[in-house]
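Justification of computing resources. Each target in the renewal requires a structure prediction run like the one illustrated here; the chain below, 492 residues long, is used simply to show the kind of job we budget for.
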Amino acid sequence: MALITDNLDPSAVELPGSLLIGGDRIDQSSGGTHAHIFPGTGRPNGTVQLAGSEEIDLAAESSRNAQREWISFTSDRRRDLLIDLADAVHEHMAEFSRLNVQDYAVPISLAINTLLLERFLRHFAGYVDKPHGLSTPAAGSFDLNLIEREPYGVVGVIAPWNGAMVVAASCVAPALAAGNAVVFKPSPLAPFAALRFGELCTEVGLPPGLVNVVPAGPEGGEALVRHSGIGKIHFTGGGTTARKILATAAENLVPVVAELGGKSANIVFEDADLDAAVQLSAYQGPIVQSGQSCACASRVLVHESVYDAFLERFVATVESARVGDPFDPTVLFGPVVSASDADRILGVIDGAVSAGAGELLTGGQRMGGELAEGFFIEPTVFADVDNRSDLARAETFGPVVSVMRFTDEAEAIRIANDSPYGLNAFIQTTNLTRAHRVSRLLQAGSVWINQVSDISPQGPYGGYKHSGFGRTGGLEGLYEFLQVKNIRIGMG
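Resulting structure tokens:
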């Protein structure tokens, strides 16, 4: 792989590490602190305050007061303030991109989450002054029957380390547009961009406390989910944590939306544009975010007639990805998030080799030399993988891809659906009829045909099966943050 290591140390900038509650920075917290490590170097990057139950109480109360103020504004004023926030995000796009790199060493060439945040804010600002209710006839009378949609009040939004700004876009933006306040909990592993976003919300004129940002560990996360002042929880993360959240939220009968993991299939048919399919598969598989994405297409299913040709080009493309300093705009491939994750991923690879789950074609090692102190793992490709193996069925959340062959369309669909997950599916074909037919048979919340996963504010995004429930984006995503009220007026 091409190594780029000229400026591997993070830029010398002040990183926001305080909690943000009511528009104020909180520099001492009951939850302790977290020493943030920059994954590119394995060295300390800053200290982050962690919210405990005391700070969660403060945040919930602050958000409750701010929400009352927010909902008292005219719809025009709320709309314009969200547009102002989108403008401010646009003006600070370079800053947010650098903070994304500081968060978890995603290459700056892929740090496009700020653009996504701006798009979602502008889109959902347009819904603020639009009607969400309707009037329907009441059977057997002339009564007036109104159906209204109202905010929950304060919602808790829990983001994973690999997507705080994506969650700010897809969850915080529609929650605000719906009239809610948000207690936003990013991961201590990646808090900096989220904290700066919270500051920006206050700077543009949103009521202080409308968006409180509280990085927290398990104690603070549980306090948020358990808090009686939270009307709804939106969680993005893994299934194990989701089960705990669902059990805790059930104590107060608080509804939960969960966007969880994936083990997405990418089907390459014999009529696909092979060069385009190779590039897409490399990017959507081990390259983007070093495979640390729920959207990762980690199972590549290739028709037997093009299997060998695809595999040869695919391995060459993966091996040619530029790796190194995440701040270098020519770099595509960066480290995994932590030393423990690196050890876990290497354990998955070693286990797959020992079990004979597939043939290891490239990668499988931690990178040394100038990159040895960082958490770099070579992008890894296994061929002829058994779809019944742990390698094919468990979410690796790292730069590891399984390639399998199939003989016909029916077998491809069967293999793709033979998974506990159902977040994304990908189809590579030039046959439009096949694209429509297969997409309707795949058990996934989103199907991407001849393109990478491009989450948009217009499209509802979420999973089937163990990949979760509920949606972000589109009207479905807006309605997740609104509850329904029926008003019946007797007319005599």
